[in-house]
């Protein structure tokens, strides 16, 4: 969808901002550009909408060489979000959002209806915020309007330059989450500049890590964290790589342990006997459909009641496939030594701190070997 072919930019004073850039962003893919200040990230995105002209190579958008497209027409097909949002101060939020549709000749009513829809999409109620002026919004809200405005004419491509850079870390994380949800729905082809590796990892389908004026590694977040291509990349992604991997490694069935199970309607004495025989101190309690109800400890099980009368409800669960970080968060929040994992509504096992550690090692090892994670085979007890 966006293709760089040996693109370079040399300024008249002799500064080479970027050199020999070749990479591709597929349709619907979000690529983050990350690297130290002055390494050429902004130059890269501004060449796509011709705010900067390359001095060598070419850039294709949707198969078309952008150098051959009228810049004004080109920019209407490419959304652009920057850190200093640049809203028109004397226009309402709704009119700001409707700017591009109005420019490309939509009727006023249609442009405004579209703007209202977009404000809703970025989490701003158009009835409340539409009539306001930019100075009546918080920084985070202004940033959302910037995103809504960039999407208003439904461009297939979105360029974002530090879009969440101007807000505090908490709001920033909120905006990132909202943006991810939105991107899952609209699937734009996105090129996003950030200097923050955490943001690059959280948002990017793939990451381009820049050195001075060139890309040192272009790969998935897991691969960049797991096998940095150079000492520069390793230095940039930082010493806490293992921690960052928690965000990008999904919980897989093989990571789970199978604890003893008790059924809601089971006589409590029978469940207690089974636990004792297994040497277990607690069991996960499931309902008749295999859904999670809660847990019960062996010393809570009396002789006469049913398990369901004695069990405790439990909210500490995560879906299969969720990132390990989410499971870790739930464990901390509930002060629990394990977290239940569900596939749909069905209980499939528990993740413990030991399982979490193993999963992290598995993901690092898989990348180190250069094989897809699903292909890694483990020696099983049966083979020994
Ligand atoms: N008009 C210009 N003339 C000369 N050099 C320039 C010009 N514009 C940018 N540069 C240089 O090009 C290099 C790349 O700049 P660019 O803005 O792309 O970096 P960046 O990675 O986006 O940095 P930051 O994260 O600080 O925004 C820098 O060394 C910068 O000083």
From TrEMBL:
<dbReference type="InterPro" id="IPR003593">
    <property type="entry name" value="AAA+_ATPase"/>
</dbReference>
<dbReference type="GO" id="GO:0005524">
    <property type="term" value="F:ATP binding"/>
</dbReference>
<dbReference type="InterPro" id="IPR046342">
    <property type="entry name" value="CBS_dom_sf"/>
</dbReference>
<feature type="domain" description="ABC transporter">
    <location>
        <begin position="2"/>
        <end position="237"/>
    </location>
</feature>
<dbReference type="InterPro" id="IPR003439">
    <property type="entry name" value="ABC_transporter-like_ATP-bd"/>
</dbReference>
<dbReference type="InterPro" id="IPR017871">
    <property type="entry name" value="ABC_transporter-like_CS"/>
</dbReference>
<keyword id="KW-0067">ATP-binding</keyword>
<keyword id="KW-0813">Transport</keyword>
<protein>
    <submittedName>
        <fullName>ABC transporter ATP-binding protein</fullName>
    </submittedName>
</protein>
<comment type="similarity">
    <text>Belongs to the ABC transporter superfamily.</text>
</comment>
<dbReference type="Pfam" id="PF00005">
    <property type="entry name" value="ABC_tran"/>
</dbReference>
<keyword id="KW-0547">Nucleotide-binding</keyword>
<dbReference type="InterPro" id="IPR027417">
    <property type="entry name" value="P-loop_NTPase"/>
</dbReference>
